[in-house]
Specification:
This protein is an alpha/beta fold and about 600 residues long. Helix content is about 50%, strand content about 10%.
Amino acid sequence: MPRGRTTTTKGKGKGRRLATQQSVDQAVKSICDIMRRGNCAGAMQYVPELTWILFLRILDEKEQREEQEAEALGLPFRPSLEAPYRWRDWGAPGEALPAGTTNRRSELQEAPTNAFLTFINTDLLPHLKALKSRPDASPRQKVISEIMTGVERVRIDTERNLCDVLDKVHQLSTEAIDPTHVFTLSQVYEGLLLKMGEKGNDGGQFFTPRQVIRAMVQVIAPKVDETVYDPGCGTGGFLAQSFEYVRERLGEAATAEQLETLKQRAFWGREKENLIYPIALANLMLHGIDKPNLWHCNTLTGQESYGGLFENAPPEFDVILTNPPFGGKEGADAQTNFAYRTGATQVLFLQHVIRSLRHGGRCGIVLDEGLLFRTNEDAFVKTKRMLLDDCDLWCVVSLPAGVFTAAGAGVKTNLLFFTKGQPTRTIWYYDLTDVKVRKKTPLTLQHFDDFLKRLPARADSGLSWTVNIDERRRTAAAAARPLQDRAAAAGQQAAEWNDRLKELKKASRRDEAAIAAAAANAAESAREAREQAGKAKEIEDAVYDLKAVNPHRKPDVDTRTPEELLDVIEARGRDIAAALATLRAGDNAARPPEPAGPA
């Protein structure tokens, strides 16, 4: 399609722009409606299908623009796709082509039944998937192949439905959408991803609410010369938002070198799910990241599906932003890669994050409440001890219940922000739990306004407070020391009784009573040593209960004595009895008198 041509919201040729958000949303909705009737029943089916179709549409438009710019500058240009595999060859409707020209689609639609579908399934898709195998494959060709990896065939059931979808996708041109009035295509695509994350769809585990992402990116504030990494990137939300954040702050002053860095070398991630990985690639490219450096692999086991886009990744990263899976159970193949072994997915992810962050690097991470407060498993305690020893955990935000409910997850969550390289001295907490989050009243960026205002000074308020970790550690150590001393003394006694027991057993004349007494004393001393040591450990481990407990909030515990509660119950009983008596009296007064009986 020649540059500058626009399409209508109804037709296929020239016409007015999609000039309102409503018109764009309606265009996307109509595409989804066709796909639903065409064998793609739910969002988990039609979003992946629309992903590769929309991606190839925008890619062709992008490459036409790049070719024109290269030609104007007298530079060579190597397209990623050549005829007949470009969108303009097979996807664009005939009415959108220059007068007097045809394309592969027009020819195939005039051929025998299903020739067009056959071309896509047996020629186009295999060609696109094979691009990465070329010895001279470009990074963009590798991305194209990875986006197409899971596409075995067109899911849309008929050629007519497919052509209807292609016609409407063709309208979603970056030039047909008026950027002064509506969101970019990347934001339109975000709306589709949101549907995957809604309750009832299986995509919720891969989707973080965008307002949470935007707040976290604003806190961490990535810079143009920094690498940004998400080890469980899902659909790529953190990376896409980080790109937009940096790009917006560069503004018109951005140099060609800075833009090249941003689009090629700044953003890195990993995702293991076959369905989600290509969606993440397409999402990042739609946002403007030319080379999404995503590794298709299991982050915890290191098992790789495709690593061609993750080559030359730095060993450590400047910024990590992530929402790792929680509630999962990992096997030995994952646990053996970590210092503190556990089946808890989120604990292993936290260890990976700490290990992957460079000295001085910053992290924002979503973690479940259970990880923060649990101190009854060694791996949880040791991982949090490593966090506080190796990093400055400078902020914890307690999110309200229901933030992830729309995504099918009801677990209570927190945002943790830390910098690697210095131990944690104090933690500043902020409490957002009073916000009532429901489907029709979701969490918004405005809910973070007071938090963001207080963050620079880490000021205390009714919703924020500071916990002194150094003081907590000192207090715990002082409380544990007498118990440790008693444990050591009991352990020494156990050792002495065991030595005595050995002597008694070696004696020429065995004194069975003395042997039994020595054995009992040794066992009792050992039990006492374990008990005292266990109590000391509980006190020390309690330091690593990092749950947000607002000291300014009145406790919900009823402090009245049983006698006071009984008095209240008795008083209420009297009130109820009096009210019933009043009702009965009124009822009797209103009742007509009984008729007199026979004389």
